[in-house]
Amino acid sequence: MDQIDQRIVGCLLQDGRATYAEIGATVSLSAPAVKRRVDRLLASGAIRGFTVVVDPAVLGWSTEAYLEVHCKGTVAPAALRRSLLAVPEIVGACTVSGSADALVHMLAEDIQQLERAIERVRDEPNVDRTESTIVLSRLIDRPRS
Fold first, then answer.
1. Choice among 7-11, 52-56, 118-122 with the minimum mean pLDDT
2. C-alpha–C-alpha distance, residues 47 and 57, integer Å
3. Which residues pair with 67 in a beta bridge?
4. What is the model's pTM?
5. Please, which pLDDT band fits residue 145 given cuts at 50, 70 and 90?
6. Cα–Cα 20 to 30 A to 2, which of 114, 125, 132, 143?
């Protein structure tokens, strides 16, 4: 990846909907040249995809929580990931060091929906127990780049 590719990625991080012409004007390339570079970055895996950032509150997802997941015995991360994918309220998950095996980020419309989602996680055969923490307010919410 050269400096022009890095600048193209920077443009896409600022505005994932920018046109190739807009990016080209910023990096001094034609729109077709930018498209070729973006296609190459996608093919190489440097860019994994494009996404949209939503405001959970606007969508009515006003209840947010983090769930520590403690597994029964040793569970492979891939197996745990498969179990967690079945719960649509889970918006993020990672394996962690410490006493828990995983930390799960959840969004729900209300406490009742959150409780049902947590019950679905607890019902997974490889889950021993969970500990939940409800988010009261967000102090810092920086976009990732």
1. 52-56
2. 28
3. 104, 132
4. 0.70
5. low
6. 143
> Which segments within 18-109 are labelled E, that is strand?
63-71, 90-95, 102-108
Tell me which fold the domain 63-134 belongs to: Alpha-Beta Plaits (3.30.70)
Q: Are 120 and 69 in contact (CB under 8 A)?
A: no
Q: Where in the chain is the domain with CATH 1.10.10.10?
A: 3-44
Burial of 45 (0-12, 13-18, 19+ CB in 10 A): exposed
Q: How many CB atoms lie within 10 A of CB 83?
A: 20
Q: Which of 1.10.8.50, 1.50.40.10, 3.40.50.11260, 1.10.10.10 is the CATH number of 3-44? A: 1.10.10.10
